[in-house]
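[step 3/7] fold_predict: job queued, chain A
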Amino acid sequence: MNRNDGKRLSGLLRRLASLALIGISAAIAGCGGGSDDNAKPTLPVAVVDRNLAATNSCASLMTRDFRAASEAPASLTSAELVSATADTKEFCKVTGVIQPEIGFEIRLPTKSWNGRYFQVGCGGFCGAVNIQNCADMLAQDFVVAAQDMGHKGDFLTDATWGADPVKRATYGRSTSTHALAVASKSIIASFYGAKPAYNYFRGCSTGGREGLGAAQYFPDDFDGIVAGDPAFGGRLGAFSNNWDANHLLDENNAPVFSAQKLTVLNQAVLNSCDSLDGLKDGVIGDPRRCKFDPKTLLCPNAADGNDCLNGKQVAAAIALYDGPRNSRGERLSPGTSAPYGSELAWNPSTDLALAGNALRYLMFAEPIPDFNYRTTNWDSLPALVEKQVALYDPVAPKTRPDLAAFKQAGGKLIAYHGWADHGVPPEGTLDYYATSTATLGGISQARDWFRVFMVPGMFHCRGGDAPNTFDFMPSIIAWVEQGRAPDGVIATQFNADQTVKRTRPLAAYPNVANYTGTGNVNDAANWKIVQPDVANSNDVIDWLWAAPKQ
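[step 4/7] structure written:
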């Protein structure tokens, strides 16, 4: 039975929800066209939205052996019953380790499981189990799980674990993501006596990278994936973060820009480009249309002042808006490392922490703990790190993403990216979208299973003076389970006191959201999704490691 047949069957089973689980199990077992007395009984598929109860106690999981699995041998360290609260129903909290060293936690509703599995991605270098990012889905009765990607450490400042090649491999290409999916499904089957009807993944930054990697390398793990601001750790750690640190910090590691100067630069960019989308509202719709020249802010007579930029600041801004290049002018990443409108998110300490750690412990064949990012040779660096970049990123250098198996399996993928993301170049996501779909009918046909949403004014995964809070989970669930593809989703911006400042629709690319011209501009009801006046005919970027042209 292939996966699509299984989907149709699970839909039939939901329509026959009145049948006992044993009856469903027998029905599934009889679908193979033959019998095998020695075959293991086929587990039933869970019936969704039926408040399913565990068939075994939480404590009994500790007596089960999950170490025999060939793909993801797991050892449980605890299985604890957690009482219901005002926000969450009773659940079984399970912790453990998947070989070789992947720490994880899974939470299983004991009486109210909705038949679905949800897995959350990590961020930065990971190093901790961020189960707290599953709270919203646990409250909706999903089984939820998270993992630490195979090591312990600070997500931003510690990559020393990269000295271990096994941990490098576990961190790369969604290997640990897959291991958790396999182990979790085994634990679910043991606890409920049934398999999840649907499996979902959500992550941003490194979690976004996990999602794209899962779609390519493990296409059967998840039915629906939401991948936000996907951070290709190799490209970023080797080039973009390093480039940014070199230009945002001087030779003494002091910031080139003060907060005041970044405000001046940001305001000048808005004055120049805010209205290009037809509305002056403090949000740049598509920064690629912006042609602002930082030289217009150069302080006169080589002086310095609060309302202008000195020469070093102008040069830094030009380099950041352009993105990393070698001496031959070749791009080293697909797009700018600092889109117009991202200025207030320029944080040199973050870039230094990411670049310094990644380069020292992850990007070279052998760690170089005393590597000085300021001595980077942009001409020789690519050859030194190319092999390691291929280990981490969903797309190896000079190759094209291959999502054919995910598409064939019936998977649905939503990616989103903040247009003002300084941490991860947003153009890289559109380049990925175009290159991954080029061999599968192009973007127009890919919209049947893969859609991208660009978020004007949003920083990396969140933040920015723009609507930046939204939830793609209802959209991906409706797409997977009901076939309703998402054309748009509402984004909200909150004031400091958590009152709503404004709402806007986000549109599935290449469409955009435009103000209708009447009514409150801060109300999404007065906006409509349209095709852009000037469509980008080709989002593929010419850069050093671009896939060969077809």
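[step 5/7] annotate
The two ends are 35 Å apart (CA to CA).
Residues 1-45 form one domain.
exit 0
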